[in-house]
């Protein structure tokens, strides 16, 4: 939904500042200020410029990326203003020869004359297609480059990483982000939690992220909690109120011991274990007394099959007697496929022997340095895991350190500009563009196409020639069944355009899931995915190559 801003001015008073208070106008590279001064000194600071923000390659060896970080960019420009302390520091950092008038210019700067057109956050995106188009006075837009690239780069990378993990795990599994302790600092941890949720994870262990973004929280206890107990004698208050509040059972621990003996001599479970670790049993009983309605135990501190699993079941069955339902177990080491299958058999045997409907479906969570490859291997081996807790490889984007977002000038004072390179992948696509996604008969996206700003929009049912930007032999006609314009106005500046609302995180997450569902399966697969086609119109293709020849110097042979 878009909203009209009176007089075309963005109402920055209604938009909070960036989540991280360190995101200020001086969170940038020094050369942005040296260029801003040089623009100002030359009288060019107000020349109207257009920049594209995009990336050149999909990450993780895949063929798609999820766009994230837009909201933080809008929060940043809505509150863009230099403080006196910041101006004083900039003055110290630049040569003394810089004139005082430049600092007066900085004092007056804001982003009221900036226009931002962007793909919606949570969208599936592809290389070369602008994620954002930023228009405005060149000196101001240049000052936005580094923070924008910073805010988009990691956000899009980790959201994509989360979406890839979700794709491998499957829709039915619960995915938990457990990466805070291994993330690159506090901001890395907070950002990871937000964007992993956006990319399809269900919950996080990060309490601060839960408070900031409303992400569901999950977590139980560690091995330290289990090993901190020595025996059941340590438990002082052993009483537990029945779930319906009707009565209090005075010695819950003895009820647990009774169930443990029943399991030990069970016809179906006989021989699986003999004596379990009593300190572990004490820890489980104590935790259940604290959280009878949400009991989930880490069962691999000593031995999963001979101790952890039977101890958990004894506590779970005791809770069941008092009207509570245990949540499940967590496996954090060893052969997760084998252990999960054995645990499921154990639960099913208890359900059968003791007539407890549903006990066989007790939740099994697995963690232990999981990544895409281990999830894929577990699927191939066969497992009974219901939920995965994933940390290090997810939040650090261990498989690829950066997305490689770039910010390139494509037009100044209505004059298209191009950046050339011997590496064709680094040649920019000039001029202010409109971008469309064309859909085929089956509902899948077929191709993204860029056109010049004033070209007519592709129409449903009308054949259009789509050309590779740089390879003249790659071209195809497309008859779209649906046309979606990708760039929408999220900051209108002084124009009379309407501004798109910034949706809540949950809606962006839903958009991400919906977008991924629309993609053709061969674009999504882990192994040898089919590249998605990105094209330009015939007219834009001709213009790119005209400008290329015009700007490239002609060599001379001697």
TrEMBL record:
GO terms for cellular component: cytosol. Residues 432-543 form the Nicotinate phosphoribosyltransferase C-terminal domain. GO terms for molecular function: glycosyltransferase activity; metal ion binding; nicotinate phosphoribosyltransferase activity. It catalyses: 5-phospho-alpha-D-ribose 1-diphosphate + nicotinate + ATP + H2O = nicotinate beta-D-ribonucleotide + ADP + phosphate + diphosphate. The keyword Ligase applies. Keywords: Glycosyltransferase, Ligase, Magnesium, Manganese, Metal-binding, Phosphoprotein, Pyridine nucleotide biosynthesis, Transferase. Transiently phosphorylated on a His residue during the reaction cycle. Phosphorylation strongly increases the affinity for substrates and increases the rate of nicotinate D-ribonucleotide production. Dephosphorylation regenerates the low-affinity form of the enzyme, leading to product release. Gene3D superfamilies: Aldolase class I (3.20.20.70), nicotinate phosphoribosyltransferase (3.20.140.10). It is an enzyme of class 6 (ligase). One of its GO terms (biological process) is NAD+ biosynthetic process via the salvage pathway. Its EC number is 6.3.4.21. Its cofactor is Mg(2+); Mn(2+). InterPro entries: Aldolase_TIM, N/Namide_PRibTrfase, NAPRTase_C, NAPRTase_N, Nic_PRibTrfase-Fam, Nic_PRibTrfase_pncB, Nicotinate_pribotase-like_C. The keyword Magnesium applies. NCBIfam families: NAPRTase_put. PANTHER family: NICOTINATE PHOSPHORIBOSYLTRANSFERASE (PTHR11098). This is Nicotinate phosphoribosyltransferase.
């Amino acid at each position: 939904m878009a909203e009209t801003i009176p007089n075309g001015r963005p109402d920055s008073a209604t938009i909070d500042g960036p989540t991280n208070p360190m995101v200020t106008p001086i969170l940038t590279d020094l050369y942005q200020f040296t260029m801003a001064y040089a623009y100002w000194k030359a009288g060019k600071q107000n020349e109207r410029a257009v920049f594209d923000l995009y990336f050149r390659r999909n990450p993780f060896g895949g063929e798609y990326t999820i766009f994230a970080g837009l909201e933080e960019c809008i929060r940043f420009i809505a509150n863009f203003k230099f403080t006196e302390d910041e101006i004083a520091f900039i003055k110290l950092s630049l040569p003394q020869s810089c004139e005082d008038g430049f600092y007066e210019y900085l004092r007056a700067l804001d982003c009221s004359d900036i226009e931002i057109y962007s793909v919606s956050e949570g969208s599936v995106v592809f290389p070369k297609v602008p994620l954002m188009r930023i228009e405005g006075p060149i000196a101001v837009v240049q000052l936005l480059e580094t923070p924008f690239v910073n805010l988009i780069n990691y956000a899009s990378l980790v959201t994509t990483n989360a979406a890839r993990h979700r794709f491998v795990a499957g829709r039915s599994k619960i995915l938990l982000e457990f990466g805070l302790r291994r993330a690159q600092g506090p901001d890395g941890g907070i950002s990871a939690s937000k964007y992993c949720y956006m990319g399809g994870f269900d919950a996080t262990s990060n309490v601060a992220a839960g408070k900031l973004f409303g992400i569901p929280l999950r977590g139980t206890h560690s091995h330290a909690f289990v090993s901190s107990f020595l025996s059941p004698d340590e438990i002082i208050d052993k009483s537990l109120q029945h779930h319906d509040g009707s009565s209090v059972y005075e010695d819950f621990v003895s009820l647990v011991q009774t169930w443990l003996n029943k399991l030990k001599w069970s016809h179906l479970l006989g021989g699986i274990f003999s004596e379990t670790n009593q300190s572990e049993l004490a820890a489980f009983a104590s935790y259940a007394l604290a959280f009878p309605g949400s009991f989930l135990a880490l069962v691999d501190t000593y031995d999963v099959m001979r101790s952890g699993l039977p101890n958990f079941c004894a506590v779970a069955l005791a809770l069941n007697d008092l009207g509570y339902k245990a949540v499940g177990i967590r496996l954090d080491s060893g052969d997760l496929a084998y252990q999960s299958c054995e645990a499921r058999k154990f639960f099913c045997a208890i359900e059968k022997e003791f007539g407890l409907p549903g006990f066989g479906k007790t939740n099994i969570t697995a963690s232990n340095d999981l990544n895409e490859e281990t999830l894929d291997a577990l699927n191939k081996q066969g497992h009974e895991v219901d939920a995965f807790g994933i940390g290090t490889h997810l939040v650090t984007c261990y498989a690829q350190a950066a997305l490689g977002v770039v910010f390139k000038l494509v037009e100044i004072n209505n004059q298209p500009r191009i950046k050339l390179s011997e590496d064709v992948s680094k040649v920019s696509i000039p001029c202010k563009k409109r971008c469309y996604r064309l859909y085929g008969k089956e509902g899948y996206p077929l191709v993204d196409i860029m056109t010049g700003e004033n070209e007519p929009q592709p129409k449903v049912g009308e054949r259009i020639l789509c050309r590779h930007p740089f390879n003249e032999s790659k071209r195809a006609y497309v008859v779209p069944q649906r046309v979606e314009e990708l760039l929408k106005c999220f900051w209108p500046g002084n124009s009379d355009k309407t501004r798109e609302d910034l949706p809540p995180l949950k809606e962006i997450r839903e958009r991400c899931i919906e977008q991924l569902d629309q993609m053709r399966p061969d674009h999504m697969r882990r192994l040898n995915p089919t590249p998605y086609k990105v094209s330009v119109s015939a007219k834009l293709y001709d213009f790119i190559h005209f400008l290329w020849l015009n700007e490239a110097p002609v060599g001379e042979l001697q």
